[in-house]
Specification:
The structure holds two protein chains of two kinds. Chain A is mainly α. Chain A has one domain: MetI-like fold (Orthogonal Bundle). Chain A is elongated. Chain A contains ten helices and no strands. The C terminus of chain B is likely disordered. By secondary structure, chain B is an alpha/beta fold. In chain B, a hairpin with a 2-residue loop joins strand 4 and strand 5. Chain B is 33% helix and 24% strand. Chain B folds into two domains: 236 residues, 3-Layer(aba) Sandwich (Rossmann fold), CATH 3.40.50.300; 57 residues, no CATH class. Chain B contains twelve helices and 13 strands. The chains are: A mainly alpha, B alpha/beta. Chains A and B meet through helix 6 and helix 7 of A and helix 2 and helix 4 of B.
Chain lengths: 233, 305
């Protein structure tokens, strides 16, 4: 434990670096996935193509993607943006399926009735479909958040600061305390993100309070991550 | 606000025909009921009025104006729509659900909500429910909110798609009486869809009985249809064939009342017969028709439900 107390500064700065890698990937992943998921929920052909593409992208090993991104985009190898872009790709790969399921879960009667009241296309999306897709979108973004935080440790392998640094450094020096510290920090960070996202969801969806996840949302959670979190490491 | 269907046809791309050459005039300020079994195209016809469905052929006119020339969103905002299972927005409170259309058309929120409170009174709902979510209401209360929402923009036309189909018989009875009261007060041009012939006869000024494919079996007032069913299909549909409408008097009532039984022997109701004589001709001739049924065959409805 002495090691932990004497390295609090490093733990804190690594955590901040980790957060800086993950937050843009999670937020952008959500923003990109919602329209794609909406499209997939409206068209069977789009659904087939997008979900297959998502599955394929998700099977690319993390280390390969982190190395490939700078080559494809021409960025310097040590730019943290490489990791964020790789994480974004994984986030979208998972989130598109959740978003497609979320929009498909909107009650057809409610949508039809809203159209009959005179909601225009954009009003229907923003005022009816998006809020009603909310609970399943929330379930999806929670999976994405945990998965992204876990995956971001791969940054250490290409020399970019993150909580993953404790793994590589600890392994090289056969120093278990450091590895365990990194592991605990990742778990705590993932838990904090989950709580924050849950609170945001609660604030945005007051009608949903006290209700349990729909069976559909639960199914989404179970199937969203085919190989389990961290399968790409 | 009369509505006219002119040779309307609806065929789907897969070749099924929902409606085949349907023509009808729905008179203003009265209730027309489309009644038939599932697959008779009654809901399709209803949804053509506010362009939720566009006909493959033919025209629908509202006060001589072809609805196909009216922008659908604008059209729908000036036509009230109430459906089965209420179709309320689960993420909006009762008051915001009622205020939906006025808010869409740009009424300031505060005013729309104020007006909506008045509508809750009108449909017999406690104002204390205003800030609840639809999921916290009973089925009957939700339908009342649905009716209030349909009336919020003060439309001249009200479309109702089996609005009372999913509530229990006692609540349905209440809602039907409430609708009759509203109709007396407001006089909307109402088109009502149901599969329940008793509901059709109770609510309809004009009743349209439909066969599969939107084919009209008979159009008329409830009294006309009951007295002169056009064919065996209609006779069977209104229950005449099964003896449900054929009532005979049994002299076993208290005072002047005579008990009426149907052909199956079930007691259907009582009728006043002072001195053993029925005075039925006057009531029918006065145009009150079966609406004033002192002969109320509630046993039938319970049996059907």
């Amino acid at each position: 434990m002495d090691w932990v107390w004497s390295h609090l500064d490093l733990i804190w700065s690594s955590t901040l670096a980790h957060v800086a890698l993950c937050v843009p990937a999670i937020v952008l992943g959500f923003v990109v996935s919602v329209p794609l998921g909406y499209w997939a929920s409206r068209s069977t052909a789009a659904r087939g193509v997008l979900l297959t593409l998502g599955n394929v992208l998700y099977t690319i090993p993390g280390i390969a993607l982190v190395v490939l991104v700078p080559v494809v985009l021409g960025l310097p190898i040590l730019n943290p943006l490489n990791v964020t872009i790789a994480l974004l790709i994984y986030a979208v790969a998972i989130m598109v399926r959740s978003a497609a399921d979320a929009f498909a879960s909107v009650d057809a009667d409610v949508r039809g009735s809203a159209r009959a009241q005179g909601f225009s296309g954009p009003q229907l999306f923003w005022r009816v479909e998006l809020p009603l897709a909310g609970p399943v979108l929330l379930a999806g973004i929670r999976v994405v958040s945990v998965s992204t935080i876990s995956l971001a440790t791969v940054a250490a392998l290409v020399g970019i600061p993150s909580l993953g640094g404790f793994f590589t450094d600890g392994f090289q020096r056969s120093f278990a305390t450091e590895v365990v510290t990194g592991l605990v920090a990742v778990l705590v960070l993932a838990a904090v993100f989950d709580v924050v996202i849950g609170l945001i969801g609660r604030a945005l969806m007051p009608w949903n309070r006290g209700r349990r996840l729909t069976s559909r949302a639960a199914k989404t959670l179970a199937t969203a991550v085919p190989g389990g979190v961290g399968a790409n490491l | 606000m009369s509505i006219e269907f002119r040779h309307v046809r609806k065929t789907y791309p897969d070749g099924t025909t929902a409606v085949e050459d349907f023509s009808l005039v729905v008179p203003s300020h009265s209730t027309t009921v489309f009644v038939g079994s599932s697959g008779c195209g009654k809901t399709t016809l209803l949804r053509m009025i506010n362009r939720m469905v566009d006909p493959s052929d033919g025209q629908i006119l509202i006060d001589e104006e072809d609805v196909s020339r009216v922008e659908p969103v604008a059209l729908r905002r000036r036509i009230g729509y109430v459906m089965q299972n209420s179709g309320l927005l689960p993420h909006r409170t009762v008051i915001d659900n009622v205020a939906t259309v006025p808010i869409l058309t740009g009424t300031p929120k505060a005013k729309a909500r104020q007006d909506a409170l008045g509508l809750l009174d009108r449909v017999g709902l406690d104002r204390a429910l205003a800030n609840r979510y639809p999921g916290q209401l009973s089925g009957g209360q939700q339908q009342r909110v649905g009716v209030a929402r349909g009336l919020a923009a003060d439309p001249n036309i009200l479309l109702m798609d089996e609005p009372f189909g999913a509530v229990d018989p006692i609540v349905r009875d209440e809602l039907q009486q409430e609708l009759l009261r509203l109709q007396r007060e407001l006089g909307k041009t109402t088109v009502f869809v149901t599969h329940d012939i008793d509901e059709a006869f109770l609510l309809g000024t004009q009743v349209v009985i439909l066969k599969r494919g939107g084919v009209v079996a008979q159009i008329g007032t409830p009294a006309e249809i009951l007295a002169n069913p056009a064919d065996d299909f209609v006779a069977d549909f209104v229950g005449a064939k099964r003896g449900k409408r054929r009532l005979t008097a049994e002299e076993r009532g208290a005072g002047d009342d005579v008990l009426l039984v149907d052909a199956a022997g079930y007691p259907a109701g009582l009728i006043a017969a002072p001195g053993g004589r029925l005075e039925l001709a006057d009531a029918l001739a006065a145009g009150a028709g079966p609406k004033s049924r002192s002969v109320s065959n509630k046993t039938d409805q319970a049996g059907d439900a």
